Input
Amino acid sequence: MRLTRTSEQAPVAEKPSLGLNRRQFLKSAGLATGGIAAASMLGAGMMRRAEATEVPHDAPTEVKRTICSHCAVGCGLYAEVQNGVWTGQEPAFDHPFNRGGHCAKGASLREVAHGDKRNKYPMKLEGGKWKRLSWEQAINEIGDQMLKIREESGPDSIYFMGSAKFSNEQSYLYRKLAAMWGTNNVDHSARICHSTTVAGVANTWGYGAQTNSFNDMHHSKLILFVGSNPSEAHPVAMQHVLEGKERGAKIIVVDPRFTRTAAKSDEYVHIRPGTDIPFIYGLLWHIFENGWEDKKFIDSRVYGMERIRDEAAKFNPEEVTNITGVSKEQMFRVAKMLAEHKPGTIVWCMGGTQHHIGNANTRSYCILQLALGNMGVVGGGTNIFRGHDNVQGATDFGLLFDNLPGYYGLTSGAWGHWSRVWDLPADWVASRFDQGEYLGQKPQTSAGIPCSRWHDGVLEDKTKIAQKDNIRLAFFWGQSVNTETRGREVREALNKMDTVVVVDPHPTMASVMPERKDGVYILPACTQFETYGSVTASNRSLQWRDKVIEPHFESLPDHTIMYKLAKKLGVEKEFCKHIQVNNDEPLVEDVTREFNRGMWTIGYTGQSPERLKEHQKNWGTFDFDSLEAPGGPCKGETYGLPWPCWGTPEMKHPGTQILYRTDREVRFGGGNFRARYGVEHNGTNILAEGSFSKGSEIQDGYPEFSDKMLKQLGWWDDLTGEEKAAAEGKNWKTDLSGGIQRVAIKHGCIPFGNAKARCIVWNFPDDIPLHREPLYTPRRDLVAKYPTYEDRMVARLPTLYKSIQDKDFSKDFPMILTSGRLVEYEGGGEETRSNPWLAELQQEMFIEMNPADAADRGVRSEDDVWVHSPEGAQIKVKVMVTPRVQPGECFMPYHFAGIFEGKSLVDKYPEGTVPYVQGESANTVLTYGYDVVTQMQETKTSLCQITKA
Output
């Protein structure tokens, strides 16, 4: 029986029996058990708040629909509110993603909003003490400092660290604020989780996002996980995986560690960290050797597979075993399973992305799927699981050092497009930037500094960076610095800057790591449950959140804080020229409509607030397998209108559940690979041959649409007079009327053209995926054959490669170190370790090591050990002795902080904000290493030594 909520009012509770209500029970339980969760109910601050907001048992209950704020599965939630207090919650049994499922984090969401460990009012560090400020005073002081630095060092000396916890509207406004200030020094956590995915996948076939959906995996015949552990990182996604398994799908898990996901697999493959490309080429060796590739698909829809065939020939079974450790027999068995169980899908996460060759890893996964013909089909694709609730949306909206919203790049044409959307003179926008040129780069049209290396922007000799001066003030807005490697340098940079500004519901490590007594500000942002707007799930679906409760304490929504800053800096009129502002809060729906006017490249134009709200009201009408509504108000539409949702909202495009599928008309969500790179390469056609989406009037490959192409095809007069005026001299990406897109789709064509996916990415340092040994590799015998890059400039910073790899650290630091996620916590852990229900479940930072390595060092489970980095840092943690890691390899979770190289930082926190659980950060000892394209940090393969404490 399908459960569907039909009322937004919950029944009034009856008077409690037995003379004991829930609050009294929890009080007595806390006295009895003394646990963290129970004890939290007895804290003085929490007791005062409970008395002030006591809710009568029979108070009317209003039900709000919201979305979980943890990972990007996008689980629906019903929040029950009485007298303005969030008193209860239940997972939405009628939601098409989670269908009543919750993980530990989702089940404790109420505490995210009502938690007592939050920042309560603006503060600054003065003389080593936290001092309370008014909002006006805090904004004035920070703004004055920004303007002073701008005058002395230019706008690029301010760094805007953004957040994957922003809503779509807040993400868009934050990127716009950085543009109004005049800098591309803006970024967020996608840089250190899936930036190599976005770059590698987009440069293969057009868009750098999940191609199918969690629900679509119900139809897969095989699911291959590479460096992905959804049992802990995406637990509700795992229910979709197991649904597929119940229907007959084979599961293969490739991971250095035997994870909880591996426990559910049909085949577990251990590989040495950092050897993904030899593993993939080893599979392709068997596929090509046995003729298992999809020749028809390759001929019509893939460019450059012959180069891949030549490279794969170098990775015979013996070579693959030597590099990866995987036997010939297992490689053959896995390749045969892939060939015999189609459609198959591949899933990867940070185990594949967080490498200095991460972009090449992700391209290799795509190439495997192209060889097998698994793209553009139900049950196939690349299902890339994203880790924060809106990391997909924040990426899409240009919270990136090298892009504007919609992946428009930073060219003068891209700036011209967004200036038209904003209705601002392009000259005025350009005037906000530093007009100089540094190391051959002009600030407005060159990539900024990535968030993985903001600290190098502070510490590096300013003559060696491509901007006027070092970073002197940084906003750490909804992102914690303990998620970045090289902890000592992070702390040094926090010490050196003029000013540190933390904007967050919690203090985060940026406010407590610095060894300074002044110059740190904390601004209390409220949670996403105290505001509203849209959020994009991993599968590209947009979901609308209701506001559950009003902001707690003196916290404010992120977009309100942005507006206050814009007003102080004198750009508020430009910032919100066509956005209504009420009491310093930009109207969220107006922000949605503004980005609808500009996001043509990826189809964020059809999802109006009204359409998204209609989907939110009708969760239960969407099919659990297809995500399509068979009836009801949203009949024929895919849940959340996953992008691309082409044209204007009036066109009523249903959204695109599966990218690049040719068996559907474009107007119903069909399509093909994008013609993003021209029509030929080295004289060879790169458009599709004899392949096109259903109903296309051009029954072959074709380039992307422009005004000229419409005229050549004789379709120009299909535009209205108003559309013609807007479309003249424009293309499908820059025509603000949407007319070019409308006419292309009318004729069955997709606006971005119809090309082949490309195995050869000629604009990257390695045009095909090449194996390169990790910078900190234990296999010195392989360095000569598989060396890293020469040291080079990447974006604005000098970046080291060969000069690190040339040094042999393996004798003194023989253990391979990797890191990952726990089910109880998320990200840097400040929010989740401040949640008593989660803190109760996982109270210690630890390192996993194999029994053989533990015996060699004389340590047992729960002993204290020191983990030593080849770069000098060391951390003190508990040891967990377990065979789930191989001899010579070890694993640490990355969610902990509050202790730094053995010293507690508890006394640095503002009063009442210390998380329940503290621990050393794994990233304190994780080492240098950055992807050559995106500057992703290399956290999945380093070296360490472990000694008993």
Q: What stands out?
A: The first strand starts at residue 9 and ends at 10.
